[in-house]
Amino acid sequence: MTPAWAKVLIPIVLIAIGAVLVWAFSLAALEGGDRLALIALERVPESGVSNPITSVLLNFRAYDTLLEVAVLLTALLGIWSLGPAAPAFQPASPILGGMIAWVVPLLILSTGYMLWAGGHAPGGAFQAGALLGAAGVTLALGGDASAGLPGETRLRFLSVLGVLVFTAVGVILMALGYGFLTYPEGYAKWLIIFIETAATLSIGVTLAAAYLGGEPRDERTSRSAT
Amino acid sequence: MMIDLLALAVAFPLLGAVVVTATPSHARGLGLASAVLTTLTSLVLSLGVWRDGSVRSDFGGWGAPLGIGLQADGLSVAMLVMSNLVALAVSVYAGSYFSATARRHFWPLWLLLWSALNGLFLATDLFNLYVTLELLGLSAAALGALSGTRAAVAANLRYLLVGLLGSMTYLMGVALLYSRYGMLDIGLLAEVIEPGLVAWTAMALMFSGLFLKAALFPMHFWLPPAHANAPAPVSAALSALVVKAAFYLVLRLWLDLFDPVLNASVANVLGLLGAGAVIWGSWRALRAERLKLLAAYSTVAQMGYLFIAFPLLVATPPGLARDNLLAAVVLLAMTHGFAKAGFFLAAGLVQKTAGHDRINELGGAAQALPAATFAIGLAGVALIGLPPSGTFLAKWIMIEQAMIQGLWWWVVVIMLGTLLAAAYIFRVLGHAFNREPTPYRFVNDARTEIPALLLAFISAFVLGLIAQPLWTLLDQGVLG
Lengths: 226, 480
Fold this sequence. Notes:
The complex is a heterodimer of chains A (226) and B (480).
Chain A: H1 4-31, H2 36-43, H3 52-60, H4 62-81, H5 94-117, H6 125-141, H7 152-175, H8 188-212, H9 219-225
Helix pairs in contact in A: 3-4, 4-7, 4-8, 5-6, 6-8, 7-8
Chain B: H1 5-22, H2 27-52, E1 55-59, E2 68-72, H3 74-97, H4 100-122, H5 126-144, H6 150-181, H7 186-192, H8 197-214, H9 223-229, H10 232-256, H11 264-287, H12 291-315, H13 320-354, H14 365-368, H15 370-384, H16 390-404, H17 408-432, H18 446-465, H19 468-474
Antiparallel strand pairs in B: 1-2
Helix pairs in contact in B: 1-2, 1-4, 2-3, 2-4, 3-4, 3-10, 3-13, 4-5, 4-10, 5-6, 5-10, 6-8, 6-9, 8-10, 9-10, 9-12, 10-12, 10-13, 11-12, 11-17, 12-13, 12-17, 13-15, 13-16, 15-17, 16-17
C-alpha cells in the first residue's frame, strides 16, 4: 500500500521536475546556436544520396546506425535465448487467407520501393524493413507458424546479414586505405544501397522473428514433424 | 593497407558475434578466436597510446561536428585493457562452463556486449555513447537471464527496464545539450558549455541516468538479484565491467565536459551517495546468505568508493596531488574489475561443485577446490584493500588526500567499509576452511577476546593512520 503522504508528495515532486525540464528545454530552444542540421544540409550533395535523412544515417553517422542494427540483432538473440515460440495461431478463414495472399506480395513490393526511394525521398532501410516485417506478421496472424521465414540455418544468416555487410564494408574500406566506413568518391551511392539492402532484409526478418517470440525451430525436428 | 585499431576494437567482436550467430554449432571455437583477436587488438592499441599518446579516428572522413569518431586516451585505454583482459578470462571460463544449448545463446550476446564495451570506452560523441549504452544494457540483461530460472528472468527483466530508464534519462540530457548548443562531440561541447540552468539540468539528467546504471546507492536495488542469479561468467562480466562502464562515463563527462559548470555541492552529493553505498552494501554483503549475493552486494559497496573520490577531486587543487588522486580512482576501478571477476568465477566453480552457494554450508570446499578457494582469498585481499593490492594503494592515496584537505569524514567511511569488507571476506574463508559447524556467537568470552580484538584493531587500523604523534615523541632526543 502506498502511504498517504507518498500519494501527495510523489505527484508534487514529479510536477516540479517536469516544470524544471520544460523551463530548461524552452531556454535551450530560445538560446539555441548554430544547428548541426544546417552543416549537414549543406553537405548532403557530397554524401552520395539526396535524401538528408539517409545521408545522416548511412554516411555522416553511419557508425551509429551500424550499432543500432546490432541492437536489433541483440534484441532478437535475447528473445531466442528465452525458449521456444508460442504455438501458432489457428489457420485463417478463406476470406482472411485470400486477403493475406493479396497483401503480402504488395508489402514485399512496397519494401523494394521504400528501399530504393530512401536515396532521394523519405524511406530507407528501417522503413522498408518494417514493411517486410509486417508481411511476416501478417502471415503469422493468418496461421503460418514460421511467419514465412526460412529454416533455422538460413534464418540465422539473414538475421545477421545487416551487421555483417555493414561491418565488412567498413573494414574492407579501412583495409583499402579510405578509413572505416569512409566511402570513396563516386561509390557512396552504391555502397549505401548495398548496405541498406542487407539491412532491410535483416530488419524485416528480425521483426517477423521477434513477433513469433521464440527460438527458431530446428530444421531437422520441423522436417521430421511434417 | 591501413589498419585502424580503434575501428577494429569494435568491429572484431561485432564480426565475431555475426559469425557465431550464423554457425551456432561452432560457437565455442569461433567465439574464443574472436575473443583472442579482440583482446590482441585492444592491447596493441593500448600499447600505441602508451608509447605515442592519444589517437583519434574519424569515420566517414567528415570529422566532428558532422561525423563521428573514436578516440583512445590514457583513461579510456586503462579501462579498455582491464575490460579486455577480464573479458578474455571470462571467455575461457565460459568455454567449459556452459552446456551445448546455452553456449549457442551465450557467445553471440557476449561478443555483442564486448563490442558495446569497447565502443563505449572509445566513444567521443554523446549520442554515440547512448547507442553503446543501449547495446550494452540489452545484451547484459539477455545474458543475465541465460540461467533460465524464474528468479533470474524476473531480476533481469527488471534490470532491463531500469537500464532503459537510465538510458532514456541520459538521452534526455543529451537532447537538452543538443538543442542548446547544436553539437554532440564532447570536445567541441566542452569549449562552449557555460554554467546555467540548461547545463545543470542536462548534467543532472545524464548523471542520474548513469547512476541508475552504475547501481549507485540508493539506486542499487536492481543489482543484487540480477548479478546473483546470472550464470557465473555473466555475473563476473556484469559486476566487473558493465557497472564500471557507467562509472567510467560519469568520470569522463565530469572531467571532459562538465568541468566548467561543476561545483563542490554536486561532488558532495556524489560522495554522500557513495558513502551510503559503502556502508549499506558492505553491511548487506556481511549478512548475505549466498556467496554470489555477497559478491553482488560487495559490488554495490565497491562502486561507492569510486564516487567518494569526487568530493576529494573537487577539493584538491590541480597539480600532482590531484593527478595522483585521479590515478588512484582509476586504479581502484581496475583492481575491482579483476578482483570481482575472479571472485565470481571462483564462486561459480564452488556453486557448480557443491550444487549450491549457501555460505554457511560451504564447509570443506577448500579441501575439494583449493585453487578456487585460494582465488576467492586473493580476490578478497584486493576487495578489502590489503597490501600490496591496487585497492590498498588507491585507498591509501584517497585517505591521505582526505586528511590533507581536512575532509576526515570520508576517511571514516573508507575505514568502516574496509573493516566490513574484511569481515565478509573472512566469513566466507572461515566457512570454506572449516568442516565443523561454526559457533553461533561472534564473541564467546568477552574478557579475553575483547582485549585481543582491540590490540589487533589498533595494529591494523589505528597505528598506521595516527602515526604522527610518534614523530613528535621521537623528536624528544632521538630524532635530531
